[in-house]
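Notebook entry, structure prediction.
Reason for the run: the old model in the group folder had no record of what sequence produced it. Starting over properly, with the input documented here first.
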Amino acid sequence: MHHVPGFIEGRLRGLRGALAAILLGFAAPAAAAYPERPIRVVMPFPAGGTVDVVARLIADEMGKTIGRPLVFEYKPGAGGILATETTARATPDGYTILVTTPSHTINPALRARLPFDTEQDLVPVSLMANVPELLVAHPAAPFNSLAEMVAYARANPDRVNYSSAGTGTLPHITMELLLRRAGVKVTHIPYKGAAPALSDLLAGSIQLKMDTYVTSAQHLAAGKLKVLATAGAVRLAQLPNVPTIAESGFPGYEGYLWIGMVAPRGTPAEAINALSGAIAHAIKVPRVVERLRTDGIETAPGGADYLGRLISREIAQWTRVVREANISATD
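New structure, fully documented this time:
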């Protein structure tokens, strides 16, 4: 009889173990259910632009993969700072993510104080797409290649100008990177937005601009613009005879409007991995690839680690360009 208590204790232990297993069984689906509700996507640009069109196309496929819709919230203004601050201060639960571009890496280079720390308060999710820039010129400009433009600008230091969508925008910063490499001076004319900057180039009062294929293709086809070089790592499929800037004497030069996603620091790894995986799947879907390729846009595989390295590298690069070109946010 002295063995009975031990027997009962063993049975009780077994029952407790079984009960724990049952409870864990009930708990497991809840723990693995991310996402349980729609995901908010904060967009730093107005609806309908290139970044918005690309992000929505990819987000649509992401929603199919993860089983919940991605709902866009538009917070344009202040060069992306407003949207980034909104995201940085959001609850890091995987239900708020930010679509971002090189403005994310230009802002810390351009502004000494931001209402967030770009690398500390936000974490990368994944790269989605790359939009290579094009160096375009008015047809009457006295040069037809990048080499000719550099030679002309060197011989005529105050005769060449270029437009941009504004001080500190990607076309401004990437042009300044090129001019630093080339060692020439070209006058910057900033505009309030890309549309008026392109309009004055078409009118002939501006000679040069960094643009993209999607916005310049119709003007190139009509002979209203000419392209001197493209700024991707490889030649653009639509313009196979146009050399890259790297091929034109500036090895390693790249100018991309990249599009990626970041999240508030502290976002669970499970959510980051689910979102990153959904992006990786979305950018392989044939309709997405074909739709973007038509506009000269490359789908760009590169998860959280890759995007994190890109952000760090660009912040250092743009900080150097801003300092050397003496660019300030109030220019």
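Summary: The domain at 40-131+256-325 is CATH 3.40.190.150 (D-Maltodextrin-Binding Protein; domain 2).
The old model has been moved to the deprecated folder.
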